[in-house]
Structure formats: C-alpha cells, structure tokens
Write a structure and sequence with these properties.
Blueprint (H helix, E strand, L loop, with lengths): L2 H11 L7 E2 L6 E5 L4 E3 L6 E2 L11 E2 H6 L9 E6 L5 E5 L15 E3 L10 E2 L6 H13 L8 H4 L1 E2 L3 E36 L2 E31 L6 H7 L8 E2 L9 E3 L5 H23 L4 E30 L2 E8 L5 E3 L5 H24 L1
Parallel strand pairs: 9-15, 11-14
Antiparallel strand pairs: 1-2, 2-3, 3-4, 5-15, 6-7, 6-8, 7-14, 9-13, 10-15, 11-12, 11-15, 15-16, 16-17
Bound molecules: zinc ion (2 copies).
One zinc ion binds next to loops.
Length: 373
C-alpha cells in the first residue's frame, strides 16, 4: 500500500462513519460534537442535547459470560473485517465501510461475525478533530531530530476518530501464602591475618540470616482493573497517550459514537481476564510484602481464589492517523480526551550525528578543563 493511496482511502472513509441520528431541522445526519457534547448537524449547525448519565453500575458476571456468549451489540452494529490487518470495525447496520481506518486497505468486507458485548460505559471524545490536528502540529514542531524539510513537506492523512475497546475487571481475591522470613543476626569471628610479616588475630562481625516459615491468608478486592481489548492499535503508541481519566466515563449511548468508528475487541473476554490477572497477582504479591515484616522476605507460594469476577466492556477515544514523508507512512495517535500525542517520526541522520558530535565535543572540553585545573 502506497502512502498516497492510504490518504485517499482514509479520506473516503469519512463518508462511511456511523451516523445514526437525523437532524430535526434539515434531515441531515448529525454527529457527536466533542466540544459541546451534543449531537450536531454539520449542515445547518443545529444541536441536540444528549442526556448524559452515569448509572450503569452493573457489573456483568464473568463465568456466566464464558458459558454463554453475549451478542447484545448485534442489534446495533455490523462487523467489517479488514483482509489486510485483520482489524474489525463496527458500523451501524445501514452503513458500509470501504476502507480500513487502521491500515487504509480497501480489502474490507462485511462479515457475519457477531458484534459481541455491548459496551457498558464510554468515554466521549472531548478533543475535536481540529484540536487533534493542532496538537499533532505542536508535537511535530518538537521533533528536533527530524529532517529540516519535514515540517514543510509532510502530508497529513485523514484523522479517524475511533473508540477503542477495553475491559475492566473486579474480583474479590482470597489467597493462602507461604513465606520465608529472614532475620539478620551477627556472629563474631576471629581469624588470623599476616601484618608486616607477622601473624595477627583480628575479630570481625559476620552477618547471617535466621529463617522461619510462615503461612498466612491475604484478602483483597480489586476494583476496575483496566486492560486493553485491542490488538490493532500499536500498544507502544497507545501506552504513550495514556492515561485516560476514567472518571469521565458515562453510560454507553449510540449517540456518542455518531460520526465516529468503534473497533471490535480483538482480545476476547477470557484473554482479557488473563491480562488482568497479571495485574491482580502483582497487587497480591505487593500486598503480602506489605504485611509480612522481616529483613528478607521470600514468597514461596501463593494460591489464590478469584471470587465474584465481574467485567465491563468500555470504549475509550483515540484519534488515529498517519503522515507521509519521503514515501513512508508514520503512524500517530492523539488521546481523544486529553490531546496527548504519540507517534513515530523520521530522524535526520545528519542532525543526529551533529548532536552526537556536539556531545562528544562537550565531553572532550570538560575533560581538558578538569585536567588543567
Ligand atoms: Zn440540520
Ligand atoms: Zn486494516
């Protein structure tokens, strides 16, 4: 896929977004407006309030979900799969996708795949597309090692506003553990050394550890452990635009997705829990370390019951785009809530070697200054 094709495709994608609401004044398709938080008509400018609520405290039962697949989102969405990168995009039932917003490929087709679990909560976009572009430009100007002509000649691709899937898990954990606790003690040792050709007795303190084994129980409730459910957005980039402030989550409504894309979770619920369990287990280990006191503490074994596991499917906002320079495509992301940018950018070999040269020159200068004084 050439960069230019990507740009054209991305441009076409905008027509196929998830418009759901008709404007009451002119009949146009309204879209969610991040700056006002309303459904806005891009043709006549009229706005419709969205009644925002945060009541969805329902935690869904994890074990039940494993037994019976949840297809609750099927009533609203169809799944389009990209034949190139494999990303699954969710669109409203009456919409058609021509291009993949994750890679730009046109090998995208509607599937019979289930849309899956309807999200419980969504973090609505707060950063408009224009603001996202501004944030990107500021970020670009700070790329001091980029080639000088980058700023004048890069070509920005269309920005796709996409809601990215995450899982959050709760669990009451009860663990039995075995630890070895070591306490320091000192013994006085005498040994013979040779000093000025004569043997001499010296005494010294040697540190030893007295061990005892202890068994115990540790209980902790884990609330809203957040893990990614997307494989299609490079996690190295996504980690750098975090954090998302989750106190902004509101009950899921189709309105928030109007004009935006949603990605179907590519990390299934069960795998999501395995990822969350790593976080939970770390929490348990540090909890045990926090309560067992000794000079040295070794955790021998921990056996945990994860009770009442519940989950939520939530959507977080990302502007996804790329820019082109010298026929190469560089991906970048903008956090749709905070505007934080992360991305790849070209590095000028000349500028980088000049910088290395300057550093070496400074080091040599410091060496000589120190030598003289
Ligand atoms: Zn209108
Ligand atoms: Zn793709």
């Amino acid at each position: 896929m050439s960069g230019l094709e990507n740009n054209e495709r991305a441009g076409a994608m905008i027509v196929e977004q998830t418009e759901v609401n008709k404007c009451s004044s002119c009949g146009g398709n309204t879209v969610f407006d991040p700056s006002s938080g309303t459904l806005k008509c891009p043709f006549c400018g009229s706005e419709k309030e969205i009644t925002t609520s945060r009541e969805n405290t329902i935690e869904l039962d994890f074990l039940q979900a494993l037994e019976k697949e949840d297809h609750s989102w099927d009533d609203e969405k169809r799944v389009f799969k990209c034949g190139n990168c494999g990303a699954e995009t969710l669109l409203d039932k009456d919409k058609v996708a021509d291009f993949c917003s994750f890679c730009g490929s046109s090998h995208i087709a509607v599937t019979e795949t289930h849309a899956g679990i309807k999200p419980a909560l969504v973090l609505p976009f707060q950063i408009t597309k224009d603001v996202a572009v501004e944030k990107f430009k500021v970020w670009m100007k700070k790329k001091y090692f980029a080639p000088s002509k980058l700023i004048q000649s890069y070509k920005l691709d269309h920005l796709a506003g996409a809601y990215i899937p995450y899982w959050t898990f709760d669990s009451q954990t009860n663990s039995s553990y075995v630890v070895q606790i070591g306490t320091y003690y000192y013994v006085t040792k005498t040994r013979t050394v040779i000093e000025d050709g004569k043997p001499k007795q010296v005494t010294e303190q040697a540190r030893k550890i007295r061990w005892r084994t202890e068994h115990g129980h540790y209980s902790k409730f884990f609330d809203d452990v957040l893990v990614k459910a997307s494989r299609n957005v490079a996690s190295g980039l996504i980690d750098k635009v975090e954090p998302f402030h989750l106190n902004g989550l509101v009950d899921y409504k189709m309105d928030y997705l109007s004009g935006f894309l949603a990605e179907k979770y590519s990390i299934p619920l069960k795998e999501g829990w395995n990822d969350a369990k790593v976080v939970v287990d770390d929490g348990i280990t540090s909890g045990i370390h926090g309560r067992v006191h000794g000079d040295v503490v070794n955790i021998v074994s921990v056996s945990t019951d994860y009770d009442s596991i519940t989950y939520k499917h939530i959507l977080l906002p990302l502007w996804i785009s790329s820019f082109q320079f010298n026929n190469k495509v560089y991906r970048f992301l903008v956090n749709g809530q905070t505007g934080k940018v992360s991305g790849k950018s070209p590095v000028s070999a000349v500028k980088a070697s000049i910088a290395v040269g300057i550093v070496i020159a400074i080091m040599i200068a410091i060496y000589f200054i120190l030598k003289i004084t």
